[in-house]
Design a protein that fits this description.
two-stranded antiparallel sheet; single chain; 242 residues
């Protein structure tokens, strides 16, 4: 996460082993940490969406079957819309979430943190035909396990990713002890990491805060709960808070 300038490379490596996240910096310099979703929750979400699709088709087929040939034509249109239009419409109209993704608290976004657009959603969903090869999403699974952010080929081409998006977040702020300068000068990326920690404090458990503070011990001279307080104080100092 952050340490003495001479050890910044080692600290960054340690941080990467703790979270499967994509670090994105906006043009304004704001650090975004996007928690990538792995193959397992994505597969469960896909199964839920598949069940929803077949449920819709079952009902539509039962009703339209009473209309004879006219019903068959309508069923063909509905079949196409359910299998191809369903994910695209859900992702673009409902903040990147299909019912399955909402159930698993997942969301599709652009890989720069922006909401997914129509073109990106169309591309990632059309390329499911490639990811499905040779069967059972074989290509997609290999790509997902190989990619650091769990993306399948469709996501790579469309420049999208699936992240964890919990509906509820902790509202507890860590206690601080004012504003204090770090024990050692910090490089700009390390300063941004400290500020990012401060901004994410409410989203982390106390155990997670202490784990991250332990990595930052060279900066604040302590670990554990005291390290969390001092790390927040360093962030206050960097932001000019009193």
């Amino acid at each position: 996460m952050m340490s003495r300038p001479a050890a910044s490379g080692r600290s960054a490596q340690n941080r990467s082993t703790l979270d499967t996240v994509r670090d994105v910096y906006t043009p304004e310099g704001v650090a975004l940490r996007l928690p990538a979703a792995g193959p397992v929750p994505r597969a469960i979400a896909w199964l839920i969406d598949t069940a929803v699709r077949w449920g819709v088709l079952l009902v539509a087929g039962t009703v339209l079957g009473l209309l004879g040939k006219a019903g068959l034509g309508l069923y063909t249109v509905i079949f196409f819309m359910v299998f191809w239009g369903y994910p695209i419409l859900c992702e673009t109209l409902f903040d990147g979430q299909t019912p399955g993704k909402r159930a698993l608290e997942l969301r599709v976004i652009a890989d720069d943190g922006a909401p997914v657009g129509w073109l990106a959603s169309i591309v990632r969903n059309l390329l499911r035909t490639v990811d499905f090869l040779p069967f059972g999403y074989g290509v997609g699974l290999v790509a997902s396990f190989s990619d650091p952010w769990g993306r399948r080929l469709g996501d790579m081409v469309a420049k999208t990713m699936v992240i964890h998006a919990p509906r509820t977040r902790q509202a507890v702020r860590a206690a601080t002890e004012g504003a204090h300068a770090p024990l050692h000068p910090l490089l700009p990326p390390e300063q941004m990491a400290v500020i990012a920690f401060s901004e994410r404090t409410a989203q982390l458990t106390q155990e997670r805060r202490e784990e991250l503070a332990g990595i930052a011990a060279p900066v604040v001279g302590a670990g554990g709960a005291l390290g969390v307080m001092r790390l927040q104080a360093v962030a206050n100092w960097l932001l000019g808070r009193q």
